[in-house]
Amino acid sequence: MPVINFKYSDLCALMGREVPQEILIEKIPLIGADMHQTEGFSEEMSVEFFPDRPDLFSVEGLARALRAFLGIEPGLKRYTVEDSDIAAAIEDPVLNVRPYFACAVIRDICVTDDLIRSLMELQEKLHMTIGRKRSKIAIGVHDLDKVEPPFRYTAVRPEEASFVPLNRTERMNLREILRSHDKGKEYAHLLEGKERYPIIFDKNNDVLSFPPIINGALTTVTTDTKNIFIDVTGNDQKAVKGALDIVATALAERGGRICSVKMEKGGSGRSPDLRELKIKISVKECCRFLGIDLSENGVKEAVERMGMSVSFSGDEAVVSAPSTRLDMMHKVDIFEDVAVGYGFERFGGTHLSQQTSGELGPVTSFSDKMRDVMIGLGFTEVTTLTLSNQKDEFERSGLPVKTSTCVTNPITEDHTCLRSYLMPSLMRILRHNKHRDLPQRIFEIGFVSDEHRTTPHICGMVAASKTSFTEIKSIAESVAREMGIEYKISSCGYRTFVEGRGAFITSDGRETGFFGEVSPKVIADYEMTHPVMFFEMDPSRIIDEKAGRLF
Questions:
Q1: What pLDDT score was predicted for residue 460?
Q2: How far is the C-alpha of 79 from the C-alpha of 109, rounded, in Å?
Q3: 216-233 pLDDT, tens digit each
Q4: In what helix (H) or strand (E) does residue 534 lie, and over which residues does it extend?
Q5: Is a pLDDT exceeding 90 seen at residue 33?
Q6: For residue 83, is pLDDT > 80?
Q7: pLDDT tens digit sequence for 335-379
Q8: Phi, psi of 471 (to 5 degrees)
Q9: Is 295 part of a structural domain of the chain?
Q10: In the 3-class helix/strand/coil scheme, how is 269-324 assigned residue by residue?
Q11: Which residues fall within 8 angstroms of residue 92, CB to CB, at 6 or more apart?
Q12: Which CATH number do you get for residue 510?
């Protein structure tokens, strides 16, 4: 999670009040953070924040939140955005590269070493979190007085533009930067396959930034800077706007005046737009959801402690959240903030006077027993992913096709559905370990999906230089006996097995499992080179009977 570093004195200065450090150490974790380096008084402080609150990734954002949370300045902090005559345009060539662009101007700001340190940290934290290592957004901060508006955000061929990048003294074209600059080599993959690269020019064709790679040395912010130009580019419009609002308001906390930029051509309106978000909730639903009973005043107090405002009309409440709260997407997010503002330390009720005792659930009890049995038989336990793919589950394995529970948006072709059997998962384990010494004896007790219902299975598998039906039969029968079932053996015609060397285990006329020697074709399809035999059983009925209820 993101860790921000700051000075205690700087935080107090931004809050406008000196708060004892022990109070800060006690209160900061209550808004969703973990304190670092807090033993004894220390001017240097570190706080680790949850990644869903990027508005707190700077000492300025933390100071704003604490002013509300501690009752110094409760409610929604509104910022004035002044108009300016500065304009910026998004040109057509960049729309197929990184299409979104937003910017702002901060005037009359006193740039200190603390501000520069905080600003650099904020940029990197936003790049790594909502920016997904700059793939979604990239932020540039520039000395406005070193360049001349209007600004152009466009795309050019790598050899068509050159400038002096940060931390260098020589001019380099865009291709040279990607090949030899540290940041260029680190982020070159983001522009892989692009014929044109994004770039921001001023009126005189001086380069401000080569996003998402590096800014120009010309516009470096120093302690002499008085006016700042912020640019945010990326592939996600919401993330671009959110990052700009967070950086602009952080600088406003330092005393800067936020001025808008007129977006021309590919853009529209003025940027930034700091209008608050409005979310409707039901007070009764909120209280029921949290398990507490709050009046309107109670909800109002909790909301204002979280830096928001609220208005009521009967049971309906309209909560106004700042535009920097990128985590506000649903009414449940408001419920969570009401809980934080109310105080988690105030939740709870009376303790039960009755003593109770627990016991292992039927599946856990069964698993523990069968684990001992399998280890006693010389097997090693493995644990595999419950996600699999239909090709491994049915085509390669030769096992009967079942109704799969599929993943709507799978990330890879290997994880498209929940597994229906354990056998394919164990075959993949053996495939990855086929260079190891033989024999290999592994087992797993885990859940599979059967008609969209999770069911426990047990599977044992042996890879050896020689296998025999008699050996796997004796293993399967030993497991069945330990499960306490009366069983019969009958022929199994699955193409998984060598013909005549596969069998069903049936109990009370129901197929409880199967075992046998794996056919050479299945072994080859799994890229194995040694004979394999296995058994797999469904013990759910036995567990049901012992638990006296439906599993």
A1: 95
A2: 15
A3: 999 999 999 999 999 999
A4: strand 532-537
A5: no
A6: yes
A7: 999 999 999 888 876 666 677 788 888 888 888 888 999 999 999
A8: -65, -50
A9: yes
A10: CEECCCCCEEEEEEHHHHHHHHCCCCCHHHHHHHHHHCCCEEEEECCEEEEEECCC
A11: 266
A12: 3.30.930.10
Q: What is the largest CA-CA distance in the chain?
A: 89
Give the pLDDT of residue 351.
67
Provide the CATH number for the domain around residue 292: 3.30.56.10
Q: Rounded to 5, what percent of the chain is helix, strand, coil?
A: 35, 30, 40
Q: Is 397 helix (H, G, I), strand (E, B) or coil?
A: coil
CA 112 – CA 119 distance, rounded (Å): 10
DSSP SS3 for 61: helix
**For position 267, what pLDDT does the model report?**
56
Distance, C-alpha 2 to centroid of its chain = 13
**Cα 155–Cα 156–Cα 162 angle in degrees, nearest 5:** 120
229 found inside a domain: yes
Q: Are residues 12 and 121 in the same domain?
A: no
Strand partners, 188: none
Q: Is residue 356 part of a domain?
A: no
Query: Do residues 339 and 389 both lie within one domain?
Result: no
**Cβ neighbours of 26 (radius 10 Å):** 13
CATH of the domain at 126: 3.50.40.10
Question: What is the number of other CB atoms lying within 10 angstroms of the CB of residue 406?
Answer: 12
Its pTM stands at 0.69
> Per-residue DSSP letters for 217-234?
GGG---TT---EEEEEEE
- Residue-by-residue DSSP string for 180-206: HSHHHHHHGGGGTT-SSEEEEE-TT--
Task: Give yes or no: residues 25 and 173 share one domain.
Answer: no
Measured between its terminal Cα atoms, the distance across the chain in Å is 39
Q: List the domain range (segments joined by +) for residue 7.
A: 3-69
- Beta carbons within 8 Å of 377's beta carbon, 6+ residues apart: 441, 460, 475, 478, 479
Q: Are residues 157 and 266 in the same domain?
A: yes
Count of structural domains within the chain? 4
Q: Is the pLDDT of residue 269 over 60?
A: yes
SS (H, E, C) 230-275: EEEEECCHHHHHHHHHHHHHHHHCCCCEEECEEEEECCCCEECCCC
Instruction: Mark 460-499 as b/e (b = at least 16 C-beta within 10 Å).
Output: bbbbeeebebeebbebbebbbeebebebeeeebebebbbe
Question: Same domain for 389 and 522?
Answer: yes
Same domain, yes or no: 114 and 219: yes
pLDDT at 346: 86
Q: Which of 231, 241, 234 is nearest to 209 (CA)?
A: 231
Q: Are residues 392 and 514 in the same domain?
A: yes
In a 10 Å sphere around its CB, with 0-12 CB exposed, 13-18 middle and 19+ buried, how is residue 352 labelled? exposed
Residue keyed to tokens 């522009």: 191
Cβ partners under 8 Å of residue 421, min gap 6: 393, 397, 399, 448, 457, 459, 536
Q: Does residue 120 form part of some domain?
A: yes
